[in-house]
Amino acid sequence: MKNSYKILAINPGSTSTKIAIYENDNLVFKETISHSNSDLEKFDKISDQFEYRKEIILDTIREQKFNLSELNAVVGRGGNMKPVEGGTYEVNEEMVRDLIIGVMGQHASNLGGIIADAIAKDLELSAYVVDPVVVDEFEDYARISGIPEIKRKSKDHPLNQKAVARLAASELGGVYSDYNFVVVHMGGGISIGIHKKGRIIDVNNCLDGEGTFSPERAGSLPVGSLVEMCFSGKYTMQEIKKKITGKGGLVAYLGTNDAREVKKKIAEGDEYAKLIYETMAYQTAKDIGAASTALKGKIDNIVLTGGLAYDEDLVQWIKERVEFIAPVKVYPGENEMQAMVQGVIRILNGEEKLKVYS
User: Fold this and answer.
1) Which of 104, 206, 234, 254 has its CA 20 to 30 A from that of 96?
2) What DSSP string runs through 114-174?
3) CA triplet 223, 229, 234: central angle to 5 degrees?
4) At 1, is the pLDDT very low, low, confident or very high (cuts 50, 70, 90)?
5) pTM: predicted TM-score of the whole model, two decimal places
């Protein structure tokens, strides 16, 4: 008989906190809690938001009339702790300390493990994180940049990337570690991961804007021109960083990060909008081609996922350029909440070994 587990998943974002309770793969309820700028600007650091967000989560669960004593575990989005290999980790004191400090950077996702740990402790349960944003399974080739002082970093969308790769493997009749995939997560940033037998051996650091340009990221830029811009005296370092991540890509060219607005412009005959949007697909396809060389062309599937994968035109433009490499599977959306829960269930069922953060 299949074991039954009820698990609370917590995914903090910059202006919202997503929560969900699952009983195995079945959704009990989910909620996206929005946070206004006035609510958040009173906190100096992201870690200072801990108590505020935790209490809102608990209030929301109470409003749903759900009894917290029914939970078997709590899982939070894995944030900027030290780089780790993929898998499920039990939250411990060292992880909480590193998330508070933000050893790899400050981001709202850092609160995921911290809040999960606090709620779980009150219930005398274990808290977990699954495939955090700093998953690092790089082969040595992937770390070298061309300048010894700069090492390439693995910062992308491993939670959703690995979840859809497992799904693709299941549809092929095997498990994740049996296959090679190129997985493309297309959201505010676009990450293209090279998955070799269950490990992400290379990926663009889309969190810092590397790779193809995207709705909010500038992508990899002509270096000489970027250096000239940096030293022109016209911009501060923070302004340059914002141009690269946050105000780059579609925002810079078209004034919006919403693909639906871009599609509306195109439908109204805006040829410039069409050029920019198709160029994003072109760059994505080009980077998929580059990624295929790392696997020496031995690719079982190219997998497209993320919110932009709902756009059939964008998907088709990419497919036209890459289907000669391998069959393309499309899994639209970001199934991150369910992916976190599934990671915990694999541990509770003994299907995977729990990893220790240190």
Assistant:
1) 206
2) HHHHHHHHHTT--EEEES-TTB----HHHHB-SSTT-B----S-HHHHHHHHHHHHHHTTS
3) 165
4) very low
5) 0.89
